[in-house]
Design brief:
about 375 residues; alpha/beta; Isopropylmalate Dehydrogenase; 2 domains; ten-stranded mixed beta sheet; two-stranded antiparallel ribbon; 13 helices
């Protein structure tokens, strides 16, 4: 079968890492008898340079016409890039937010998993790591502070900026359902994270999550305040299975969770709506400081491609084969620079490789 994949290479390391993920899809296609056709979509800084805006209507239409979209990363250095001299709605990130909203991608899945082989790169103490951890951060992606009304204006002689955090019950219910559905396929525990001791939006969040939980008697629900969760992620990450949370808390906690696993270069993500469609991207950013050097870790993007196979195309075996190939390469000792062991004496036991070599090694190991 032929699948139509929209591809947003984007800015910074985006094009380099997406190239490797396409290599992986093509190899999986070759082994399992599928073909992928790619439609390049402009978004972010490259779109600003080419069209004056970070996302055109044409780009949205291209994304909608695809079976799924694979994305690299967008944005540049916020202090030095001319993109950040533009009004906020014309900056690279505005393109991504518009795409999420236009495609109603309300459910963001960010798995954070500690690979046995990467324990060396994990910054936590060995007794905390234990036999590893495996959690899924479910981040609400189209509501909250990111999409509320905002304004900067003078009020009573003082420059004042306002951002609004809004959630309605329907927005909370649909992400909560997704969270519980996923928990049912995992270890059946949901930790719902909020700031209900201060925020109204969090109090509604808690109430609706509790209502949804009634339909999932097998799932254990626990509530946790976001500040405590930030602490628990380093203190005892093993306690988490599914972390269910609103947009901005999820943005922050998912970066923290990824660092706990050793490298943000390993963390994939899927943004889903009510259909099979999804946008798949690494959780990390565009890393402009290392762009073009051929040293970026393509694994998060490759694992995002595996999620694309699994969630949008229902190709579970193919997804398993990709994930298995990643594990094998790590087991054989290949590392990009970001996941190299810290201690000098341990460096000789592994082989440092660049972006495209890592892609090649993984592709070579995809088999039935
Ligand atoms: C992410 C990123 C985005 C976000 C930025 C680029 C707008 O940090 O996907 O986590 O905050 O959602
Ligand atoms: Mg983020």
């Amino acid at each position: 079968m032929n699948y139509k994949i929209g591809v947003i290479s984007g800015d910074g390391i985006g094009p380099e890492i997406v190239k490797e993920a396409k290599k992986i899809l093509d190899k999986a296609g070759e082994v399992y008898g599928h073909t992928f056709s790619y439609d390049e979509i402009l978004m972010g800084g490259v779109s600003i340079d080419a069209t004056g805006v970070p996302l055109t209507d044409e780009a949205i239409a291209q994304a909608k016409a695809a079976d799924a979209v694979l994305m690299g990363s967008i944005g540049g250095n916020t202090s030095t890039s001319p993109w950040y001299q533009l009004p906020p709605e014309l900056r690279p990130e505005a393109g991504l937010l518009k795409l999420r909203k236009s495609l109603n991608l309300f459910a963001n899945l960010r798995p954070a998993y500690l690979y046995e082989e990467l324990k060396e790169a994990c910054p936590l103490r060995e007794d905390i790591i234990g036999d590893g951890f495996d959690m899924m951060i479910m981040r609400e992606l189209t509501g909250g502070l990111y999409f509320g009304t905002r304004v900067t204006e003078e009020r009573e002689g003082l420059m004042t900026a306002v951002d609004t955090l809004t959630y309605n019950e329907q927005e909370i219910r649909r992400i909560a359902r997704r969270g519980f559905d996923i928990a049912m396929k995992r270890r059946k525990k949901v930790t719902s994270v909020d700031k209900a001791n201060v925020l109204d939006s969090s109090r509604l969040w808690r109430k609706i999550v509790e209502e949804v939980a009634k339909d999932y008697p097998e799932v254990t629900l626990e509530h946790m305040l976001v500040d405590n969760c930030a602490m628990q992620l380093v203190k005892d990450p093993k306690q988490f299975d599914v972390i269910l949370t609103e947009n901005m808390f999820g943005d922050i906690l998912s970066d923290e969770a990824s660092m706990v696993t050793g490298s943000i270069g390993m963390l994939s993500s899927a943004s889903l709506n009510d259909t099979k469609f999804g946008l798949y991207e690494p959780s990390g950013g565009s890393a402009p400081d290392i762009a073009g050097k051929g040293i970026a870790n393509p694994i998060a993007t490759i694992l995002s491609a595996a999620m694309l196979l699994r969630y949008s195309l229902d190709l579970d075996q193919e997804a398993d084969a990709v994930e298995h190939a990643v594990k094998r390469v790590l087991k054989e000792g290949y590392r990009t620079i970001d996941i190299m062991p810290q201690e000098e004496e341990k460096k000789s036991s592994v082989t440092q490789v660049g972006t495209s070599e890592m892609g090649y090694l993984i592709a070579e190991r995809i088999q039935k």
